[in-house]
Amino acid sequence: MKRLITVLFLLSAIFVNAQPAIVTGKVFDKKTKETLPGASVFILGTSWGASTDLDGQFKITNVHKGIYDIVISYVGYQPDTIKKFQISTNTPSLELYLNESSLNLNEVSILAQRVVHTEASVIQDIKKSEQVVNGVSNE
Predict the structure, then answer these.
(1) pLDDT score, position 19
(2) What is the pTM of this model?
(3) Which of 13, 27, 96, 126 is surrounded by the fewest CB atoms within 10 Å?
(4) Can you spell out the DSSP letters for 18-52?
């Protein structure tokens, strides 16, 4: 009977230790303090990660307890890494802030040309004309 109780006690300790943790938090713009919807938050070297919702909140579930590096990234912002972050079953909710990244780009030119003499262009010309006419294309 003592052995059974001891075995059950040891098994329960193993299962309690094996419970996955949850990492939650919110991502903000450091300057304006506005939330950043769609930011990526992931744990480096694992497949665990999440994107923030419309309120800038994220939730990463089924994370094993341990020490990890957490990476936060968002388009137009400098990525940030929290080094050696301790994850446990009672990990507090995180408030993460990102700095804007600005780049000066050179001039961009967009050139377009309308393709004529196709069936589609002839149909468009017929639709726009004031008189009813038949058209023939090269296709």
Answers:
(1) 76
(2) 0.61
(3) 13
(4) TPPEEEEEEEEETTT--B-TT-EEEETTSS-EEE-
